[in-house]
Amino acid sequence: MSTQAKATGHVAILLLCGASAASAAAIGGSDGLLRPAVQQGHGNSLLIQAAAARGGGRAAGAGQAAANRGGGGAAHQVRSTASSNVNHNRAANVAGNRNVNANANVNRNFNANVNRNVNVNVDRDYSGGWDDHWHPVAAAAAITATAAVVGSIVNTIPPSCSTVVVNGVSYSQCGSTWYQPQYAGTSVQYVAVNPPQ
Amino acid sequence: MKIFRPILAGCTAWLLLAAGAATVAAPQQSKAPPTPSVSPNVDADALAALEKMGAALRARNIFVMNADVTKEDVLDSGEKLQFAGTLDVRARRPDHFRMSLVSDLQDRQIYYDGKSVTVYSPRLGVYASFTAPATIAQTLNVARERYDIELPLADLFTWGTDNSAAAKLTSGFLVRPERIGGRACNHYAFRQQNADWQIWIAAEEPSLPCKLVITNTQDESRPQYSAVMRWTFPATLADAEFAFVPPVSSNKIVIVDVASMQASGATK
Predict the structure, then answer these.
(1) pTM, whole model, 2 decimals?
(2) What is the separation, in whole angstroms, between the first and last Cα of chain A?
(3) Do A86 and B253 touch (CB under 8 A)?
(4) Which of B12, B165, B212, B242 is an S-S bond match for B103, by CB 3.0 to 4.6 Å?
(5) CA nearest B101 in A: which residue?
């Protein structure tokens, strides 16, 4: 494959993606792995995808930040998922999937996750919900800019947060905001709490 | 497709566990009618193959299953994304199992030692436990109903113990013999409400499943789950295989009791 041919391929993809209102972009994570993230809008989408094609890792933060900010638009929310059971799925698995959209509202997040968790994984609302550890710096800034409302739930927290054990309970302290991690199904969520005494 | 390849590579995990493992042919609650009526659209040989497979699975008290899995999510736009992962299950009936669900998106280990279930995330370094009932079958129910943890492929372990399963089928037939990973298997297709599913069953004894594909028919994009399974049957599996020992750097957290929350009206 010549270099030119490859470049042409990228262009074609970019055009394709740019034509949709919102498109998923594969962007580089801080660990060097490429992972999907959510991206909205044409212009940014092009930038991010171009960076991804070049293997640019730093574009990740920007992409994720955009995703996290995307509550007001057509972020790439998962509306349903495959079932890994024919007869053993919860009724919620079938009927509850649409609740995923409720993720736009942080305070309703818990319910959404509960209903959805069913099979497998779960909290993949494509806006910061990638489980386990991908915590771009930009997203961290977005989260800590304002104090989280106690009781609100997020799926990821910034990497700068530290784990603190108080009276046998594990907390994640992110500046002045404290979170208590919990499993909801097999997903780990972070509930904003008052600072432990 | 440079752009898309990374998406596929960024696989998921999900899958949790399959395993449902080991369901001892537990006495079914009295709900099972003596002879449920099966749709005439379900071929007798297809139904017999399922029952034979169920018997082969229940005949093993100790087993290890490794599976390569894919699972699809549907975005609001209707676009589907597929993620890949692996699922490893080891079980010792009636009251031990351990599952490992690994993908780039989520990595979980689940232990059941006959007394409690522990869910552990190696990457996040947190684990949570809950008290479990005395058998795998009961534990599967508690995990699902109280803690919202569903064990994938649990159907495989309960087929033949729940008569109502066959009655749910609306169609079933033998497609044709097919090789899966070099093994001679027979491909069957079934339909029921909300799901079309296909299963490949080893052509030779024991009649173990080679592969399972479940199509969610509730969404017009029809997301699919697929598992290609390999089975081994060690003579023993020691208790230590099922015992969770918290790594030094790990922290214990809580797991939400969904049933309690719903009962108290905490969720709206």
Answers:
(1) 0.66
(2) 63
(3) no
(4) B12
(5) A120
User: Can you say how many angstroms the Cα of residue B157 is from the centroid of all Cα atoms in its chain?
Assistant: 8
Instruction: Name residue B5's amino acid.
Output: R
User: Number of helices (H) and strands (E), helices first, in chain B?
Assistant: 6, 13
Tokens of B141: 């129910």
Where helices occur in A20-161 by DSSP H, the ranges are: 42-54, 59-69, 91-95, 109-116, 137-144
Is the separation of the CB atoms in B87 and B104 below 8 Å? no
Calculate what percentage of chain B has a pLDDT beyond 90: 66
Please state, in angstroms and rounded to a whole number, the distance separating the CA atoms of residues A18 and A64: 18
- Per the structure block, which two tokens stand in for B56? 């082969």
- Residue carrying structure tokens 């104090």: A147
B-chain residue closest to A182, CA distance = B254
Report strand pairing: B209-216 vs A153-154: unpaired
Interface-testing mutation among B212, B253, B262, with chain A (most A C-beta atoms within 10 A)? B253
Question: Is the complex ipTM more than 0.90?
Answer: no
R_g over Cα of chain A? 18
pLDDT at A69: 36
Which of A111, A106, A107 has the alpha carbon at shortest distance from A92?
A111
Residue of higher predicted confidence among B17 and B190 = B190
CB-nearest to B256 from A85, A133, A183 is A183
Is the pLDDT reported for residue B186 higher than 50? Answer: yes
Contact B38, A67 (CB under 8 A): no
| Tally of CA atoms within 13 A in the half-sphere of A43 that contains its CB | 0
- Taking residues A15-43, report their average pLDDT: 33
| Residue to substitute from A27, A80, A125, A169, interface B, most B β-carbons within 10 A | A80
What per-residue confidence (pLDDT) applies to B215?
Answer: 96
- Output the six-digit token pair for B109: 């280990």
Tokens of A163: 């784990």
Nearest Cα neighbor of B22 from B127, B134, B103, B145 is: B134
Tens digit of pLDDT for each residue in A63-97?
333 333 333 344 678 888 888 888 766 543 333 33
Q: Report the DSSP pairing between strands A162-166 and A169-174.
A: antiparallel
Instruction: Locate B110 and state its tokens.
Output: 């689940």
Tell if the CB–CB gap between A182 and B255 is shorter than 8 Å: yes
Tokens standing for residue B78? 């209707």
Q: What single-letter DSSP state applies at residue A92?
A: H
Instruction: Judge contact between A27 and A48, C-beta under 8 A.
Output: yes
Write the DSSP assignment of B185-201 as a string of letters.
Answer: EEEEEEEETTEEEEEEE
* Tokens linked to A90: 């919860």
| Contact by Cβ (8 Å): A129, A156 | yes
- Give A25's pLDDT tier (boundaries 50, 70, 90): very low
